[in-house]
Amino acid sequence: MSNCKKCSQIFEVSDDDRKFYEKIDISEPSLCPNCRMQRRFMFRNFFNLYHRKCDLTGKQILSMYDGNAPFPVFDMHEWWGDKWNPLDFGKDVDFNRPVFEQLKELHNNVPRMSIVNQQCENTDYCNLSYSSRNCYLVFGNVFNEDCCYGHIIWQSKNCFDCLYTYRSEYCYECIDCVQCYNLAFSQSSENSSDSKFLVDCTGCRNCFGCVGLKNKEYHIFNKSYKKEEYEAKIKEFNSGDINLIQVAKKRVQELIGKHIVKHFHGINCENVTGDYLYNCKNTFDSYDAKNCEDIRYCATAESFSNSYDCNYSPNTSEWSYNNVAITGYQIKNCHNCTGNCGNLDYCDNCYSCRDCFGCVSLKNKQFCIFNKQYSKEEYSKLRDQVIKYMKQTNEWGEFFPSELSPFAYNETMAMEYFPLEKEQVISQGYRWKLEDKKDYQEQTYEIPDDIAEVEDDIAKEILVCEECRKNYKITPQELAFYREHNLPIPRNCFFCRHKKRMALKNPRNLWSRKCDKCQSDIQTTYSPDRPEKVYCEPCYLSDV
Fold it and tell me: In Å, what is the CA distance from 421 to each residue of 87, 461, 524?
């Protein structure tokens, strides 16, 4: 057992953990898993975009960095161009100063990409996107097409207002859904289609307002109907009327707690703890993981193996530790290093690089330290010296300290998963960004309750969010989607809709409790005060 040097909580370092740390030559962590994750999340700004000038061309751009960023910010197309060379910012290693102090100087000088949209088309208003096209305001946008308003949408098409949705199509207001088609207002459902208002359903078709069903069809509020009866009743429900939508949501909430749930969401798993795990083996304390094996303390990761403490990584990686958004092998303490990188330490925003240490904004480079080029032999010798020095200064194994983050605490995902008040943020030495004062317009347009009564001119109107009172608009693409699927116009801005969706997710926290049937020990994200009956997987499969 160890004591976290930040929160003082006791946390476990198991024998298997130590074997992993020895294998990758990393020091044992001084922070508990939550504090490690919090520090990583302070480097991840998905949602806050600003208008500013490109420091290379002077043109107006959209950027995740505001105008006060200490480093130059380039338009993403210019950043990928050949008008500048990141090696021009190279530094020698000074063995009389802490490495993190030297890294801060490098981070504050090397140009950054305004937004990260890699191999994308027509996704200028998205951030942290990969291989996607025709998407708008999707943050964490991976292999998608024609999607709008979402967070962590991967391998999907025509999905609007979704959160943590994978390999799905024509979905609306869906949370934690996998391989679904034509689903709306649903949560924690898999392989389901042509349905609305599902919760914890698997393999369901043509269902409405159902909770906890498996492989069912023609059900309404968990009651079975003949096909003709079902179709007649569904035809009576006008899903385009916002008032009826609210009635249906309330009715579904009344069903929650009356059904059996498995202690975790997911399928085809062996020896796992966490939640929303699919095709995983030996995966512990992890969340939203797909096709992973031998990992721990990871979240939002796909095809990972032999890795600890990694987040927001949509592609293959192995033998990696303490990273945010990486792909490749043997990557340690790095942020946003993709394109099948390898053997990287303490690198930030590097792409398709190998054998680099402490570098920023490199592309297709090898044998670099602090953005300075070396021969293979020089690199190997100097890297060993730097690691030895960092072990002496107790820096080796730690993620970048918070003062290297280019963002204020309340701009980042740390605020979403580890919310703090302004006074708490400042007292802990983090930055807090004051909200820009802006005069918002009053809404003069009255939104019809029924989508059938909405005219084309709504796309020209300025609307006011009923929650935060900020302005938002309805795009023509969005209006066409609502009409096609008979859905009402939302009354809140995207960011307030996102907050409501996040509030519906189970927390990333494991409680120890007993299976409500066999009394075996289980770990689950369902807290003991929840109304659901929580079964271990064998009991759940035998009863449902």
Answer: 40, 35, 28
